[in-house]
Specification:
single chain; disordered C terminus
């Protein structure tokens, strides 16, 4: 498939529900694709558009991370890329835009409960899997791993 121009924009969470349901919940109309924190003032939701079509999405919620709870962190949930455009770089572009905005808001780290089938994506985009925090999701009944990404340099780290 030829890659088309992607536009990434902040959006309201309900705009993402249809893509979340189709990609992450097997299009099950009874599935919950909302988070109780969707309307929290600190929540951030991003959509990747090709034309008027949403092809990728990600939502972030202020939440202490499982590794360094003292860091200002956001939890990623509902990362999805539409089936026919997976591998085109759209998910990576949405994440880059989101991470840049979160850094501007003072975030030092992001973390997620990532599906094991998506670990390759996370590892390729700079995230790290946390050993010992593998689990089966109560929502999806699929294997997940906790992944983290530091958005700022560690104290004493050499500049990159």
């Amino acid at each position: 498939m030829t890659e088309l121009a992607l536009r990434v924009e902040p959006v309201a969470a309900p705009v993402l529900y249809e893509l979340r349901r189709r990609v992450l919940r097997s299009n099950d109309p009874a599935s919950i694709v909302a988070d109780a924190r969707d309307d929290d003032p600190g929540a951030r939701h991003f959509a990747g558009f090709v034309g008027d079509r949403i092809v990728a999405c990600a939502s972030f919620y202020p939440a202490n991370g499982p590794v360094d709870p003292g860091l200002v962190a956001y939890q990623l949930r509902f990362m999805a890329v539409d089936f026919d455009v997976q591998g085109c770089g759209y998910g990576t572009a949405v994440m880059a835009t989101a991470e840049a905005e979160l850094r501007e808001l003072g975030a030092e780290a992001v973390w997620a409960n990532a599906r094991d089938t998506a670990l390759g994506f996370y590892l390729a985009t700079g995230w790290t899997a946390v050993a010992g925090l593998e689990h089966v999701s109560a929502e999806t009944h699929l294997p997940h791993s906790v992944v983290v990404r530091r958005l700022t340099e560690s104290p004493g780290a050499a500049p990159g």
